[in-house]
Amino acid sequence: MSHAVVPGFFDAIQTSMEAEALTKDNIRAAVRDLDRTNRNITAVLNRVHSSPKEQVPALCAEARIYFSDIQTHIKDLAKMVPVNQYYKYNGLWSSPMQQACFLATLTMYLEHERLISVDELEGFFDVKVDLDNNITDFRISIEEFLHGIVSLTNELSRLAVNAVTSGDFARPVRIGKFLKELHSGFQLLNLKNDTLRKRFDGIKYDIKKVEEIIYDLTVRKLIVAITEQIQEGDNVG
């Protein structure tokens, strides 16, 4: 007698579901480790807002120590992702990866007051950035990288406020110049990701916040000489 339902049909499905659940559980465990290290780096870099500028290099050096742990977490994570199934599971780690990109970008800015390069980001994590939109193995997606850069703008607007509180009136001027250049660069991109596009639209509010700080300092005649020096440097360039 033939069966209307093939024997073992549901057993095979259950086995597949259990394997899928195990893969996700393993990935989530690795993501928790990544999250934990992100929080450690965040705790270090948050001290920049309440520390003298002379201490910033030491804080960056302390933060950099943790990036070797992030490299380990990413390697562990990459091993758990089945071959050619990156996009299927990417949602499980994309948010903490965006945060890690932000922290690397912030560290580089605090050290050199410039935007991190793709090569430098890859150096932080020992993994490639997917510039070709053709992921066959584990990569940092270009969207994750860009989200990290957008997060930097909000952090720098906060830093501009705290710099004034600590008496560093030059920093907001430099931050304002950097954010405007960054915003101009983003305007060249045709962003398809809705979330990323909405976050990009918020950059102008960060710029406005910094401009208000600079205006207030200018009215109080605290940064006239600094502004002139920056403008002269632009003219020379």
Automatic annotation (TrEMBL):
Tell me one Pfam family matched here. Answer: Translin
**What is a single molecular function from GO for this protein?**
single-stranded DNA binding
Asked whether the UniProt record includes Ribosomal protein among its keywords, one would answer no
What is a single cellular component term in the Gene Ontology annotation?
A: cytoplasm
User: Gene3D superfamilies under this entry?
Assistant: Translin, domain 1 (1.20.58.190), Translin, domain 2 (1.20.58.200)
Keywords of this entry? Cytoplasm, DNA-binding, Endonuclease, Hydrolase, Nuclease, Nucleus, RNA-binding
Would the keyword Nuclease turn up in this protein's UniProt record?
A: yes
- Subcellular localization, as worded in the UniProt entry: Cytoplasm; Nucleus
Q: Which GO terms describe its biological process?
A: RNA metabolic process
Self-association and partners: Ring-shaped heterooctamer of six TSN and two TSNAX subunits, DNA/RNA binding occurs inside the ring.
Described function: DNA-binding protein that specifically recognizes consensus sequences at the breakpoint junctions in chromosomal translocations, mostly involving immunoglobulin (Ig)/T-cell receptor gene segments. Seems to recognize single-stranded DNA ends generated by staggered breaks occurring at recombination hot spots. Exhibits both single-stranded and double-stranded endoribonuclease activity. May act as an activator of RNA-induced silencing complex (RISC) by facilitating endonucleolytic cleavage of the siRNA passenger strand.
Q: State the similarity comment.
A: Belongs to the translin family.
Protein name in the entry: Translin
Identify the species of origin: Mortierella polycephala
